[in-house]
């Protein structure tokens, strides 16, 4: 194995990140595109100093509400930046924030609360009157906390304004510090347990990259507030004093004036949002004209989209960084694209492991040497790996081989050592080398497509699900020309983009989509 450089043993305590950043860069701005649910009076124009004060204030309110060190506090509320603030506030008390996607249904949330054995639950009126209505929360949660207003059986943080501030609690670095969850495409999601030391491990490669940026650039981000990526991204940017723009509503016409005003030099969002933001390339306000660096994680992004986004920048030699990672491990493999190589790039080639920090091997699936035709299981080693799945350690250990972790993806390494990720193991379709590679190729040939997903049909055949711009009917002749290299594909099924089932990070839930298609196709 290549040389490994262990990560720092200094724990990354989320509750202290804003305070430590404010001590060095108090006046650096943080701009929001929305009001903060819990403290709307704070406004949309913050600084590092006011951000730190909000976290300290909310920690005091949570303590007054009864939250204590070592306890779990499940955050399940309307998507809003206060999820980040409340998670940091809970961490500041030594409690363990458990981030639950606002997209989860009430039955799933109750199952997760029961798994946590009556945690504190922080939710809001929209959830209590919606997905949680009728559920016996008194049985599943030790207490129910709401941001504002009065509701029987709940504690309101609004009523606890002005509570005495608390001294931060510093738990040991190997204690649970944060929980996120998996996408739940095959049942109730698993709760991924991160420690302050594992967070430091996943922080390291991101911080090393930002350290190479010599100028202070404004960082604009639209990432799920319940994903660990948001917490690592802000930890890095706050550490380096980068102005931050936080976006909740990604609708292009809403984003355009915000980006035109703040002129970010770094932009990060989900791959599917980057597809939507292709509209910004020709926008008269030129909102992407000052972007020097794009950052993409979570899922594969198609090379034509990368090329379009790079073309929008007026900066010299803009770069698109593509990271391959996982909630359990953080960033693992990286490469970058420029205007010169984006269109010609192989979207399945995700680059190299991060030198000295992450390591990768490919294990045969069927006894044959891993290659494009016979991809193997991808296994990784990283100091950023989570320590377990809460209350499901056996499921976690099934994916471990000592320090190696099986990602669930299949692929191979080429003769130069570059990592090619072809598919999730559960998404492999017979007679298709890589569903993702086919999708890249066809999307590059048909500008009218905004999404293409290959899933297995009722008989295991490869069914293309297509979404077009403005739901314009797909031209059969153009489709046949674009897929002439892929005779194994079934006839396409066209759906509106909004009907694709997605995770909190906007990934298409392929197994759920395949299930829905089977229900639709089998009677025929």
Automatic annotation (TrEMBL):
Query: Matching InterPro entries, A to Z?
Result: AMP-binding_CS, AMP-dep_synth/lig_dom, ANL_N_sf, ATP-dep_AMP-bd_enzyme
> What residue stretches are annotated with the AMP-dependent synthetase/ligase domain?
19-390
Per its record, what are the GO molecular function terms?
Answer: ligase activity
Keyword terms, alphabetized: Ligase
Q: Does the keyword Cell cycle apply?
A: no
Q: Which PANTHER family match?
A: LONG-CHAIN-FATTY-ACID--COA LIGASE, NONRIBOSOMAL PEPTIDE SYNTHASE PES1 (EUROFUNG)-RELATED
State the protein's name.
Acyl--CoA ligase
Source organism of this protein record: Streptomyces roseirectus
């Amino acid at each position: 194995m290549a040389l490994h450089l262990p990560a720092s043993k200094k724990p990354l305590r989320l509750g202290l990140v804003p305070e430590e950043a404010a001590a060095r860069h108090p006046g650096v701005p943080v701009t929001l595109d929305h009001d903060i649910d819990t403290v709307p009076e704070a406004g949309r124009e913050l600084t590092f100093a006011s951000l730190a004060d909000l976290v300290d204030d909310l920690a005091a309110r949570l303590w007054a509400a009864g939250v204590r060190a070592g306890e779990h506090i499940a955050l399940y509320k309307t998507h809003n930046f206060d999820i980040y603030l409340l998670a940091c506030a809970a961490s500041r008390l030594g409690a363990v924030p458990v981030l639950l996607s606002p997209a989860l249904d009430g039955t799933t949330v109750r199952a997760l609360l029961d798994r946590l054995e009556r945690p504190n639950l922080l939710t809001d009126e929209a959830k209590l009157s919606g997905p949680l209505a009728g559920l016996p929360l008194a049985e599943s949660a030790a207490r129910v906390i709401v941001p504002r207003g009065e509701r029987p059986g709940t504690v309101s943080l609004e009523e606890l304004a002005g509570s005495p501030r608390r001294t931060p609690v510093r738990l040991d670095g190997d204690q649970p510090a944060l929980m996120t969850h998996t996408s739940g495409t095959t049942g109730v999601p698993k709760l991924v347990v991160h420690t302050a030391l594992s967070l430091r491990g996943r922080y390291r490669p991101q911080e090393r990259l930002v350290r190479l940026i010599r100028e202070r650039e404004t960082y604009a981000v639209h990432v799920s507030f319940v994903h660990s990526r948001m917490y690592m991204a802000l930890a890095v940017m706050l550490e380096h004093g980068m102005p931050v723009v936080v976006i909740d509503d990604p609708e292009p016409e809403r984003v355009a004036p915000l980006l035109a005003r703040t002129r970010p030099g770094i932009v990060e969002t989900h791959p599917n949002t980057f597809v939507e933001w292709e509209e910004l390339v020709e926008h008269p306000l030129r909102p992407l004209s000052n972007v020097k660096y794009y950052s993409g994680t979570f899922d594969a992004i198609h090379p034509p989209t990368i090329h379009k986004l790079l073309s929008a920048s007026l900066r010299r030699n803009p770069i698109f960084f593509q990271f391959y990672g996982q909630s359990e491990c953080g960033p693992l493999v990286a490469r970058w694209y420029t205007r010169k190589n984006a269109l010609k790039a192989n979207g399945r080639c995700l680059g190299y492991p991060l030198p000295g920090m992450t390591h990768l091997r490919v294990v045969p699936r069927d006894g044959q040497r891993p290659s494009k035709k016979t991809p193997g299981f991808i296994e990784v080693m990283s100091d950023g790996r989570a320590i377990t799945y809460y209350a499901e350690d056996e499921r976690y250990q099934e994916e471990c081989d000592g320090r190696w972790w099986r990602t669930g993806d299949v692929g191979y390494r080429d003769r130069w050592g570059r990592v090619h990720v072809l598919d999730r193991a559960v998404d492999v379709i017979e007679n298709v080398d890589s569903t993702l590679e086919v999708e890249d190729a066809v999307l590059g040939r048909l500008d009218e497509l905004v999404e293409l997903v290959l899933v297995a049909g009722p008989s295991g055949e490869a069914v293309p699900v297509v979404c077009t711009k403005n739901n314009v009917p797909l031209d059969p002749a153009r489709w046949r020309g674009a897929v002439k290299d892929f005779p194994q594909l079934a006839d396409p099924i066209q759906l509106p983009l909004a009907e694709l089932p997605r995770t909190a990070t906007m990934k298409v839930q392929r197994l759920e989509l395949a299930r829905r298609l089977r229900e639709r196709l089998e009677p025929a």
